[in-house]
Amino acid sequence: MYGIVLEGGGAKGAYQIGAWKALRELGIEFNGVVGTSIGTINAALMIQDDFEAACDLWSKVDIFASDSMGNEIYSQLATYKFTSKDPMKIKKEIKEAFGIEGMDISSLRRYVNSMVKEDIIRKASKDFGLVTISMKKRRGLRLFKEDIPQGQLGDYIVASCYFPIYKTIEMNGDFFLDGSYYDRLPTKMLIDKGYKNIIEIRLYPPKQDEEKQIYDSNVNVITIYPKEYLGKTMDFNKKTVIRNMKLGYSDAYKVFKDIKDI
């Protein structure tokens, strides 16, 4: 049995759905999934074992993006290169470059809340975890489902994805920020939970020093990552989504074929 870690990376997240398809076909079983940002949404659907809903989401995600701010601004934003990685400066840059306060993701929030089946996730024997940042507490949060208030699982999933280009939404007197600014690849969550066999499904190739990183001599970490560029974080173009799903599928298959051949 494995624990699965899903990295944050916006539109690149379609890659993880392709990898999940391969794991399903290979009969790879898992006891828990944790994710950050888009990885959190994908993780919830994996815990629900709802591959059909995942495919439905990724077939509509470009429509959500374009409807939220209009086709013209969305098209420009999809290829726009921000000059800063600081979230507050990104918000300012959005205002200066596009004349908007941010992207309205209320429709996406409603869709996620309708798609996420909180009762199924809570009753599941599998662990589910996410990462977000509390602006009120001024710190990152690594939360498992038991740490999240009843009835608010869907909202916390959206909170994990709250990229600075989105309009700010209040939740329980707090504001949240995308968990990627704190922990984009929350492998440590599963290690601290006692997992010894972990599959990381990454959206960025590991840096050279990361490839040599050893979490613990007793922990076996298998990494699936793209060998090709998956595109920009906000490029939800349908062709890109389909391409990235195919890449995730083939990369996951190759990784486990190589393991069996050892």
Strand segment tally: 7
Mean pLDDT across residues: 88
Structural class: alpha/beta
Strand content: 5-15%
Q: Summarize the amount of helix as a percent range.
A: 40-55%
Report on this structure:
- The protein is of the alpha/beta class.
- It is built from eleven helices and seven strands.
- The chain has helices spanning 14-26, 38-48, 51-69, 71-79, 87-98, 106-115, 118-123, 153-160, 187-192, 208-211, 238-261, and strands spanning 2-6, 30-36, 127-134, 139-144, 176-178, 197-201, 220-224.
- Strands 1, 2, 3, 4, 5, 6 and 7 form a seven-stranded mixed β-sheet that branches.
- The longest helix has 24 residues, at 238-261.
- The chain is globular and about 55 Å long.
- 39% of the residues are buried.
Secondary structure elements and their pairing?
Layout lengths: L1 E5 L7 H13 L3 E7 L1 H11 L2 H19 L1 H9 L7 H12 L7 H10 L2 H6 L3 E8 L4 E6 L8 H8 L15 E3 L8 H6 L4 E5 L6 H4 L8 E5 L13 H24 L1
Parallel strand pairs: 1-2, 1-6, 2-3, 6-7
Antiparallel strand pairs: 3-4, 3-5
Helix pairs in contact: 1-3, 1-11, 3-4, 3-6, 6-8
